[in-house]
User: Fold this.
Amino acid sequence: MTPLEYIATNPTYEDSKTKWLAFSTELKDTMLAKQATLNTSHRVNPIELTDGRWACRGAAVTEISGGVFTPLFQLLDLDLLNTATIIEDDEFQSLRPTEPELI
Assistant:
C-alpha cells in the first residue's frame, strides 16, 4: 500500500502505531534535505533496514495533511513519496538490524 492509499483509509493514530513507512535511499535523502530547511522540532529520523530501504513510523504519514509533518511532506514530490510502501510492524521487525552482542 502506498502512503496516499493509506491516507485514503483515514487511519487512526492507534492504527498507525503498528505501521511503518518504508522507502528508498533517494526518498530518505530528499526528506532529510527538505527537513533541514524547516524551522521545526518535529523530525523524521529514518532507520536503515537490512534490505537497503529506510523506515519511519507510520504515524508520520497520518501527519501529512494538517499535522506536524505537513510542512515537510508539502515539499516532497508526490510521485517520489508514492514509491514508498506502508508495512506492518512484523515486517519491519524482521528487517530491522540486530544489535551486536556485547562480549
About this structure: The beta strands are 19-23, 47-48, 54-57, 85-88. The chain has a mean pLDDT of 87. The two ends are 41 Å apart (CA to CA). DSSP finds seven helices and four strands in the chain.
